Amino acid sequence: MDLIHPIFKWLHIIAGVLWIGLLYFFNWVNGHFAATMDADTKRKVVPELMPRALYFFRWGAAWTWFTGFILLLIVFYHGGLTFDDGGSWGTEAFVMIAVTFLGVFLYDFLYKSGLASNVRLITIVSFVLVAAVVYLMKEWAGFSYRSFNIHLGALFGTNMAFNVWFRIWPAQQQIITAIKNGEAPDGSLVALAGLRSKHNTYMSVPLIWTMINQHTTVLAGGNFGVTASTNWLVLMIIVALGWHIVFQIYKKSGKVQGF
Questions:
Q1: 231 within domain boundaries
Q2: For residues 58-70, average pLDDT
Q3: Residue 221: count of CB within 10 angstroms of its CB
Q4: Does some domain include residue 111?
């Protein structure tokens, strides 16, 4: 385990940088650049650029998720860091772990439902559901501060990897083919790929927080002058702050101009 842990941690970091870096490139650079191209230019550029970029994008997502899952097994489940003192494996813990990895299907259902047409409402619903999951991890399943942080990260990471492989990549294959053939892409596919990619940017900042905050001093272990019973609220503040940061970057990215 002493060898497996650092190897998979470095693989996790490298794959994550590759994946999230391309995610930000697609959303904050390439999207605005593509809007400046005419049809002939898109027909030349897109079939050459996007398959290459999407190759590293989707495999970066796959390796980030896989190595993260292995680290979860090693550090928390094998390493005994899942619970607060006195906590133990029981039905509650297994239910919340199932939510961590299967909650993606509820996420996918919600954002294919009519509720998704109201952006403000679906955002509030999403935030409340995330808060409920974090609260139950701590108060019902007995997860430690570090544990419910990383399990929320695993939930977001699973949602994001699902989006890449089962929503964005299949849609992009058809979009790229249409552009290559000089045809207009299906608007619903463009909207789907764009929306799920945008979701991934919003989940990425809280996800990165859950990965690294334990490795700082002031921010580790729930040290915010709050009681242990309310430190889960700190994580929800970070989620909201992360979403706001991404929102502001989207606004800024639309104003950056070429020469």
A1: yes
A2: 98
A3: 15
A4: yes
